[in-house]
Amino acid sequence: MRNSILIALISISVGGLIGAKVMESFGRNYIMANLPVPSGTLNDKDVFLKSIPANSELVKKDLVEVNKKAKNVILLIGDGMSASQITSYRLLKKGPNGRIAMDRFPISGIVLTHSADAIITDSASSATAYSTGSKTKNSYLGVDKDGQILENLTEKLDDFGFISALISTSEVTHATPAAFSSHVDSRRDTDEISSQMLESKVATILGGGRNFFLPPEKGGKRKDKRNLLEEAKKSHKILTHKNQLVISNINPSEKILGLFADEHLRDEGTPDNHPSEPTLTEMLKFSLERAKAAIDNQCRGSFIMVEGSQVDWAGHANNIDYLERELGEFDEATRYALDYAKNNQNTLVVVTADHETGGLLIEPIALSYYTGNNIKFSFNTAIGGGSHTGAPVPVYAYGPGSMNFSGTLDNTDVHHAILNALDLTEQTGSCL
Q1: Domain annotation for the chain: domains and CATH numbers
Q2: From the candidates 84, 123, 131, 170, which is the catalytic residue?
Q3: Who wins on pLDDT, 1 or 84?
Q4: pTM for the complete prediction?
């Protein structure tokens, strides 16, 4: 009898303890899920202002010599894209266990993005680092911090018989394509950028931005009132509709200027124009066909820069749906580039970004509520409109020379690793 009472008391005690723990867990989760957490302002964030020490000398990555050289390079730049943007797209598109095109690359690393005069870079200085291998000030394009002209990739490769292409979903005069085709001390000087673009060594330029080649009386935005689009007809074949991206209609030796929208592609204000606008993949496919025709003619190789410009704009706008759409287009172009390289083993593909935009976080729906598939995406650089951050960005690589894109790189290292992957032993002059 006494043993039975003891067993009953122990059972009641253990049961009560377990029950209490269960109730405590339920109670804690309920409280955490229903805390009165306000939406807040920037002043409510935990902010720590620090002065960062300035290093006197840039640490350069030691590159491995590439024995099997690449003939073609495809550099894809997701403007404003860091690991959070990629993870967000992967979750939205494929779920936690899914994989996207960027996950298929065998080599990956991280890229540090600071400019010559700031921890937080803009697209101009970062793209200049990729195009020239040198740091410069924010807003500078193709010039060093003192305003001196730097040789960019398309100019250098032209001397060795390579053909180049620049592709963008923004205006082609925007910072990233401009860094590969112009030399100015202000990214806002679109009159000069567009003029230099036409004089550049770039054979194929595709994107938006007709208004930056036209005077105001033609609906354009040129302050110098030149009709540069009319002038361009003397040196370039002008394309205005995606149906014109047909390689059989192109002379291998002529330059191409494709302007498919007045401003950027897929502008919500001009939906009637969207059917005539090509995707990144369509522009990349055409540029690769163009490069092959030129190589069959007399060129030694090709360089193509592909920019997913509006990933950045989605971060500035704090718009996750916009981000999903733009990363979808960018990842599809990445998939096409990687498949092309796997079928053409002389092609190096590099995927990276210029900086992160928006401070994108992937959070639980309530504090410490780590349960289920419902998550919260939040942009944390501003309420209603975001800015750039100093977070590093990923880099992925496949093909000859890809081993040099692993580990930690400065953005200037990307330039030198691309050059290291190519055979640049003999200057043959331009192939056009």
Answers
A1: 66-420 (3.40.720.10)
A2: 123
A3: 84
A4: 0.90
